[in-house]
Write a sequence for this structure.
């Protein structure tokens, strides 16, 4: 009996402790505030990329709040954890839209998570800002894409490589939608420009054994290796390349999924001299970027670095603010309408929302990774019109 | 395929073999003795990787002149820490769940999630950089076009040393004698005066320690992050199950077969395809020999 009671008390205490949790995350709603949702993976495999994107979004929100908010209201972010699980993303998106009635949501990272939340946003007439560079081939009325699509990254990179580095290309990637689609576009573009694909290889996500692929690359002797390997596999790939004696002195390699963030995990010494193509690099010299990087480091620590999706996510928050102010209301259809042809000075330079396809005019930049883990820009395109459905 | 590539492919096969053996050794011993399927084995490897990382940080800060030695020390630290953790784990957790294999499966899986989140809290959600020591960087250049990575040579060597040590421990030491006695007949061994509870604890700890060594050496090949352990777990289980869950020799042969098969198939097809075909072959063979290549012949 005594034991029973004690257990009951223990359970009650535990329950109490748990019920406190959500309140620490969500501050009390205020009359003069506007809710926005953030849905990214804070746990699971993708947390390593997405956690820092949340940091960038929160920084933008804090900055806007400190300078008076939007339309006189403070932004109140509601952060939900998608847990690297696509159905969870959809469920959290529904919660944000139906229970919290958020004015806009910043979130999703992988194409799979975007595809999972897309119907939720379309059905509920919501608005999602999506920050990642991706394969394109999509246009949703409920999504504004602040990352590059394929013609602004992959195709720009391939065109530059064909003109400057050679004609034979070896494609290697992780086995899922983004690398497969990207490579399909890359293959068409390479062939059209008189180049040839001398090998194409896909490895399961999380694969850590690359010796056969490396031997195949050695046998094929391509002018260029184009890598779309992502996540933890990246670390294994570059470490094993280096160990096998392949580095920038004897092989041109362009990575399409390596930002400054990934470089810290892979180790700059394994990447030095390899190429990468993004819209944004931390090393960009312009006042807005310098302010952004300094604020980020001041807020989260001097050792932190900023990569392309983080800058795109940061830009997204300011883009939303500007659209709301132009529309004069938080009403979603009005904000979407106001977004068309909106111009903003972002860390990556001036960007412009396309008049009807919800993507951004962006520059493609190519750089070499240096020993400090930063990127030295060697090529910068003119602003490229977004074309999520390129004709090849 | 040229001769150079052929040699490098065979070498890669040996390298994957040694990696698989390192992964699976600890799991085989634990499963063989206690029937515990340790789903947290991968996280113990990750723990070993993190210990190596911690050692590298300590060396960078306090003994930058002796960086070359950190890796050897790191392997030792990884072993000691995971061994101690395994010992505590067995005493405080696993031993209450013997004879309930499904419960241990779930409980150790839960433990793996807890450990992942723990790594995330302590070391952050991103991968950490573990530097490769100077003397293991690069490749041994035999001729133009024929290069063998030094770190893989090191791992093959390490695997041979560990395998020999495990063999000597199990078959030439008093502890090994006790472990084998308990494996063969727990009740009888207990009746003969062997403290089976302690044998369990030491064996489990040893299995965890071996996982730690594996994790430590894999820092040279792969990433060190909160979910790194997951990368290893599936391969580890395939090797153990295919080899016959209680047989060390089986583990070796299955690692060798899987390693060479996968590497050859990867060369002939693509990485994803190779994995799929390898798994298919394993499934068919397990269908024909349900207890794996080398099932221990014991009366039950």
């Amino acid at each position: 009996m005594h034991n029973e009671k004690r257990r009951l008390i223990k359970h009650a205490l535990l329950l109490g402790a748990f019920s406190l949790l959500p309140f620490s995350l969500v501050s009390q709603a205020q009359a003069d505030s506007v809710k926005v949702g953030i849905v990214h993976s804070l746990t699971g495999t993708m947390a390593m990329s997405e956690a820092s994107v949340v940091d960038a979004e929160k920084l933008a929100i804090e900055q806007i709040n400190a300078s008076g908010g939007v339309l006189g209201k403070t932004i109140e972010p509601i952060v939900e954890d998608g847990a690297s699980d696509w159905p969870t993303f959809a469920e959290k998106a529904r919660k944000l839209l139906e229970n919290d009635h958020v004015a806009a949501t910043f979130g999703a990272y992988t194409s799979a998570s975007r595809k999972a939340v897309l119907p939720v946003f379309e059905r509920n007439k919501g608005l999602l800002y999506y920050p990642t560079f991706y394969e394109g081939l999509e246009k949703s009325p409920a999504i504004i894409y602040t990352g590059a699509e394929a013609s602004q990254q992959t195709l720009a990179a391939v065109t530059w490589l064909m003109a400057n580095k050679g004609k034979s290309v070896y494609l290697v990637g992780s086995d899922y939608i983004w690398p497969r689609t990207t490579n399909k576009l890359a293959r068409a573009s390479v062939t059209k420009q008189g180049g040839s694909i001398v090998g194409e290889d896909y490895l399961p996500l999380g694969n850590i054994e690359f010796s056969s692929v490396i031997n195949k690359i050695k046998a094929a002797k391509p002018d260029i290796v184009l890598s779309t390997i992502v996540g933890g596999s990246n670390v294994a790939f570059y470490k094993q390349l280096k160990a096998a004696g392949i580095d920038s002195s004897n092989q041109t390699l362009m990575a399409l999924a390596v930002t400054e963030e990934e470089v810290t995990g892979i180790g700059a010494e394994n990447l030095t001299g390899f190429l990468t193509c993004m819209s944004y690099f931390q090393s960009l010299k312009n006042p807005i970027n310098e302010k952004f990087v300094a604020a980020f480091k001041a807020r989260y620590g001097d050792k932190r670095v900023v990569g392309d999706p983080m800058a795109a996510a940061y830009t997204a928050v300011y883009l939303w603010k500007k659209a709301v102010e132009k529309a004069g209301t938080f009403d979603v259809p009005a904000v979407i309408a106001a977004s068309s042809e909106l111009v903003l000075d972002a860390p990556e330079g001036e960007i412009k929302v396309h008049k009807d396809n919800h993507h951004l005019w962006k520059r493609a930049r190519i750089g070499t990774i240096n020993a400090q883990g930063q990127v030295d820009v060697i090529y910068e395109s003119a602003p490229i019109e977004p074309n999520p459905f390129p004709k090849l | 395929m040229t001769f150079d590539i052929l040699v490098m492919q065979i070498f890669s096969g040996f390298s994957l073999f040694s990696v698989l053996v390192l992964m699976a050794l600890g799991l085989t011993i634990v499963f063989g003795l206690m029937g515990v399927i340790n789903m947290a084995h991968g996280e113990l490897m990750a723990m070993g990787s993190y210990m190596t990382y911690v050692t590298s940080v300590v060396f960078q800060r306090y003994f930058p002149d002796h960086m070359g030695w950190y890796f050897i020390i790191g392997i030792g630290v990884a072993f000691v820490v995971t061994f101690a953790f395994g010992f505590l784990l067995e005493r405080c957790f696993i031993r209450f769940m013997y004879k309930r294999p499904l419960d241990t499966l779930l409980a150790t899986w839960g433990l793996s999630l807890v450990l992942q989140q723990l790594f995330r809290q302590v070391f952050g959600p991103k991968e950490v950089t573990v530097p490769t020591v100077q003397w293991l960087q690069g490749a041994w250049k035999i001729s133009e076009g024929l290069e063998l990575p030094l770190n893989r040579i090191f791992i093959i060597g390490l695997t041979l040393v560990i395998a020999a040590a495990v063999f000597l421990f199990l078959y030439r030491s008093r502890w090994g004698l006790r472990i084998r006695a308990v494996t063969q007949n727990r009740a009888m061994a207990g009746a003969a005066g062997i403290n089976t509870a302690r044998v369990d604890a030491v064996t489990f700890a040893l299995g965890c320690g071996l996982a730690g060594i594996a994790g430590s050496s894999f820092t040279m090949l792969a990433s060190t992050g909160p979910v790194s352990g997951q990368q290893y777990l599936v391969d580890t289980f395939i090797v153990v199950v295919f080899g016959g869950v209680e047989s060390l020799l089986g583990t070796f042969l299955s690692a060798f077969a899987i390693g060479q098969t996968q590497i050859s198939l990867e060369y002939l097809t693509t990485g994803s395809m190779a994995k799929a075909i390898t798994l298919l072959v394993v499934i068919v063979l397990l269908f024909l020999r349900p207890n794996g290549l080398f099932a221990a012949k014991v009366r039950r």
Chain A has two domains: 31-148+289-361, 151-280+365-380. Chain A has a mean pLDDT of 91. Residues 82 and 88 of chain A are 5 Å apart (CA to CA). Chain A touches chain B at residues 42-45, 47-48, 51-52, 175, 200-204, 206-209, 211-213, 215-216, 218-219, 232-236, 239-240, 242-245, 261, 264-267, 269 (CB under 8 Å).
